[in-house]
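Weekly sync, protein design subgroup
Attendees: M.S., D.O., the rotation student, P.L. (late)

Item 1: inverse folding check
M.S. brought a backbone from last month's batch and wanted to see whether the design step gives back something sensible before we order anything. D.O. pointed out we never logged the input encoding, so this time it goes straight into the notes. Structure tokens as presented (129 positions):
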């Protein structure tokens, strides 16, 4: 059974950084793309970034390009989301999800990308002074 577990959330001041981790079941990253999503209170869930299992390409929502960086460690079955220059509007619960190899672009262009059926429980990120 494919499982995902996020970690690394916390409270940070504006301008600070956090690195989130999404630890997946063994060999997941070989077969599944991993997307990061976030949901702020009272708002719809939105896609943040994705890394493709098909070709290793990375995708970002336009508003976050340059601040967030997604990487993966295949040996550790872990995907990371480095978040820099954090702003109060980045406050949200961050989730990772596994989906089809060639649908990564959909994570950052669709509200509910099809096929991303496996989800972690989320990690809270709070940006506050």
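Designed sequence read out in the meeting:
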């Amino acid at each position: 059974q494919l499982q995902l577990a996020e970690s690394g959330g916390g409270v940070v001041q504006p301008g600070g950084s956090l690195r989130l981790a999404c630890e997946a079941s063994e060999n997941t990253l070989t077969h599944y793309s991993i997307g990061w999503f976030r949901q702020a209170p009272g708002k719809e869930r939105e896609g943040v970034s994705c890394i493709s299992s098909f070709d290793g390409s990375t995708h970002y929502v336009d508003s976050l390009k340059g601040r967030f960086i997604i990487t993966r460690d295949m040996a550790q079955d872990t995907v990371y989301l480095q978040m820099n220059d954090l702003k109060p509007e980045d406050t949200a619960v961050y989730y990772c999800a596994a989906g089809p190899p060639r649908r990564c672009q959909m994570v950052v262009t669709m509200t509910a990308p099809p096929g991303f059926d496996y989800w972690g429980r989320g990690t809270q990120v709070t940006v506050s002074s």
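Discussion: The chain is about 5% helix and 45% strand. The chain has a mean pLDDT of 96.
Action: P.L. to compare against the previous round before Friday.
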